[in-house]
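Re: your question from the hallway

Yes, I did run it. Sequences:
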Amino acid sequence: MTEAAPPADRPRLFRRRRASAGSESGVWYPRWFWPAWSAPGALWLLVLFIVPFYVVICVAFGTVDLFRNPLPVWEPWYWTASNVTGVYHKIFGAHAFLQPVFVRTFLYVLAASIICIVVGYSVAYYVARYGGRRKTLFLILLISPFWISYLMRMLAWVNLLQTDGYVNRVITFLHLAPRPVAWLEGRPLTVILGLVYGYIPYMILPLYAFLDRIDQSLLEAGRDLGGSPFSTFVRVTIPLSKPAILAGLVIVTLPMFGDYYTNNLLSNSPKTTMIGNVLDDAIETGGQVPQGAVFVILLMILLIIPMLYYMRSTRRSLEEA
Amino acid sequence: MSVTVPRVDAPAVEHQVPPSKRRTWWWHDPWRKPRILEAVTWAYLAWSIVPVAIAVLLAFNAGRSISTFQGFGLTWWNQDEASLFKDPELHQAIFQTLKLSVGTMIVAVPIGVAFAIGIDRWHTRPATTANFVMLLSFVMPEIIIGVALFLVFQFLLKFIRLGTVAELLGLITFQLSYPVIIVRARLLSIGKEYEEAAMDLGAPPRQSIRRVLLPLLYPAIFASAALVFADTIDDFVTVNYLHAGAPTEPMAVKIYTAARGSPTPAVNAAATLMLVSTTIIIVIGFLLYRHFTKGQRAGMHDFAAQI
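Structure:
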């Protein structure tokens, strides 16, 4: 059915009714058939996903009334940049008190993702290559954090890290610290480990899925050509798994950049504020809603490249399946 | 027939153990066997499970402490005034959670499944665009969706006030992409042959979808339903921006708020209840998944791949 267009004398209607390009088997659907299936979902996404971003822009480029309530401006030609410049001055201006927040967010996310890669890769590699008969057990254990809610897992650390909690008791018992440490009062280490704890499962699973599928013959070829196990690992396995590492990295860093709850639960101190906290505070405390809208836009600009990469890898893994 | 075979070769086997199988301590050659990796893996698994186990244990604490176990008791489940089943607010929150999860699942799954089927067959530019938007909603950090919807209900769709309806709309928007992605993966793997065979045998399109395609999709549909349900129980980000005060707060939001303040073991009890319910949902989802993939050698692996 790949011939050129039908002869000119054929009725035009005939060609039009070949609704979907995929229906080459000769089964014809009415033209509206497949679009009608997608319509509710598409409409839903339009109204509650696309339109909201327009509203965000209108609030960010809008004004405020006397009581500092935001007044969104719907017409693009009346947009003003006062909210945006306000945020700009807070980040880059003379009193740039938000600048450390950005630096801190990047540092925390960087540290957390490095730990995620190192630990996550080791675990995924071990389970994929040496899991053996225990693979199913390992897999269940690796998946379990997905249905143990994030909240529960953070709560567990809130319990453990109390000043009179079990972590401090172990530390003082082993004489690692002279007196109990106040873990939950603005410690970067706690927040970073909290982020790792929260998101590392999302790193391990795609890595595992990839490493499990690596063709063993490639590794054998590496050995046959004289590579030591270590150099085979460095020169074959790691380059092969680069896309999986990148995908895992994107999966964990995206929510980390938008994270505010880990910080709120495990530190709740201005000493560890991240971008997500500034955004959350702007909305929750009120009076700073336009600033919150600017931060939403900022976050989206910041994350658009990783988001596109993640979308591409999701689509690709869909098509490979 | 009853010849007893003398077991003479038993000791001989021991001699034949190849040297590589003999126990070598890892410090002789730490890189040869993955002992370090093994240790890291077990340490990681312990690190990921033990804290949660302790938190569950603390839910059954007889005393007030959230950091020290003071004996077993159901104090924080149904005995104390502020316990999970006695505190009227927590009680309400349980029902709110149930309402939201069921509602989200009932709306998001059918819309998502239909969307996936439509996108899969309707290869045109609008379909590609719709698919792009769907994937974008999948990768978007939740805080962005939550805040954006908050602004929508605040300034544009003002007739939808913050509260249960707004929460539902937000959750459905956030969850919509899961069924779409899971069902599309399944659609791509089953191909079109079955459906076309049905139509060659004379089934009209709608019938071939209902009687051939949908049954083939059941595993994916049930897996995604379980996932959406369980995920909604745990959600507290979207809902945190869209609730209207205490009566419309689900459990997850209550736990989040309480954990930031001065929590009692009732918070652990609530979180444990959530854990138990999501586990049950996932197990049911897995059993349904296995039931509908009978004869296809589907196991934990494939179910995990779905999730």
